[in-house]
Design a protein that fits this description.
By secondary structure, the chain is α+β, with helices and mostly antiparallel strands. The protein has one domain. It contains two helices and nine strands. A hairpin with a 3-residue loop joins strand 5 and strand 6. It is globular, with a radius of gyration of 18 Å.
């Protein structure tokens, strides 16, 4: 009898809604003429703060222009972070979607604790921006470590 009760409780516990990971992630991408600086923070309540300023149409830009644009994005990300409001996302244990939405917004890899932000710019396919876990945010989200 005890075994049956235990198995029932175990099954019921497994049916619960997956809880999103808590923590902070940051990173950046520079590809195809687009530069992105990004941060994600998931609190204990499961609400998500996310910011990913981007600049497009930098195809063929000189290296110093790209560095200047990256610096601009870094400053924008840092200066505006306190204004980013936490919001809910649906989470299935791996993928985050806007409530009731279909398109993936973020994908979490539990094994590596890496988060991939799916950035949608215009009518283009999603641009994956791989974010690394951090204990605290840095002024330069592109930097390793």
């Amino acid at each position: 009898m005890r075994k049956a009760i235990f198995l029932t409780l175990l099954l019921l516990a497994g049916c619960g809604k997956p809880q999103p990971p808590t923590g902070k992630w940051e990173g950046g991408a520079s590809t195809g003429g687009t530069v992105v600086a990004a941060r994600v923070e998931i609190g204990d309540s499961g609400l998500v703060r996310v910011s990913a300023p981007d600049i497009t149409n930098l195809d063929g830009a000189r290296p110093e222009v790209l560095l200047n644009q990256r610096a601009r994005l870094q400053a924008e990300l840092v200066n505006a972070w306190d204004e980013v409001k936490p919001r809910p996302f649906d989470f299935d244990g791996k993928t985050f979607r806007k409530p009731g939405g279909v398109a993936p917004q973020m994908v979490w890899d539990k094994a590596t604790n890496r988060m991939t932000l799916q950035l949608y710019i215009g009518a283009n396919p999603a641009l994956p921006v791989v974010l690394r876990p951090v204990s605290a945010f840095h002024d330069d989200p592109f930097a390793a470590g």
